[in-house]
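REQUEST FORM: STRUCTURE PREDICTION
Request ID: SP-0412
Submitted by: Lab K.M.
Chain count: 1
Length (residues): 128
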Amino acid sequence: MVAVEKAEAPAPRRADPAPVEVRRYRTMRMLVTAYCTCEICCEKFSGAGRTSIGKNANVCDGVAADPKLLPYHTLLEIPSVGLREVDDTGGAMRQDAKRGIVHIDVRMASHSAARQWGVRWLEVKILK
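STATUS: Completed
RESULT:
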């Protein structure tokens, strides 16, 4: 009689581990102010309806900054605000940059909300 070897069933393959999302960011202390699209805040640009990169300015989900310091489309995580994208610029941000100050201006839904925000120095996360 011939001995028959039993073939062992192959060990079950382990599923590849799920990819882990790694967030790379740096934190920077910034001067954070707020504005809305009214004539008081935007002066001659209040009726434009568009940000510097062509987004609808009446949607309050963007940030103005000096694009030399924070390029357009940079994603920021701002305390008490959340995630916002740099989509606009302004003279105050560019002037402060010349003095070594990183200044961002958060777009708000109303003038009263912008005034209530005031002026704050915050640790802001710069995400990529």
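NOTES: The CA atoms of residues 11 and 17 lie 17 Å apart.
Reviewed by: T.R.
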